[in-house]
Model the fold of this input.
Amino acid sequence: MRLRPARPGDWPGLWEILGPVFRAGDTYMVSPDISEAEARHYWTEAPRDCWVAEDEGKLLGTYYLRTNQPGPGDHVCNCGYVTAAEARGRGFARAMCLHSQERARELGYSAMQFNAVVSSNLAAVHLWEDLGFERVGTVPGAFRHPHHGKIDTFVLFKDLTGDR
Done:
């Protein structure tokens, strides 16, 4: 696996990964009806950084990194990660999360926060906590899951400086 910055020509492969995840509507605070153009802006243009994970030339994962809040909160970043269905369970999400933490430090961030980890996304919750993220809050019923109805989201946080 190789991680590299996303390039404009990567979009068709990224959409193949992101489209099904967004359409499923069970893990991201993104409308399942998001247009491809809106998704491209959300994932690759609005963030500060966008990376891809590839294996043998095939895109199998991606993450974005953005400032979580402006002004006095701009030292905390936020990331989103998606792994292609055929690559799940092969360590792509772990590698991308570890890489994003290093990248965040390089960009001057001192912490990372995940604002809305869907409680039913057990694999993600387990992975993020295994990588040292603390569950600092629960937002009751904040996510309308297509099968489970209203379920909780978690706020996860990690200090990137070692000071905490």
User: Anything to note?
Assistant: The radius of gyration is 15 Å. The chain has four helices and seven strands.
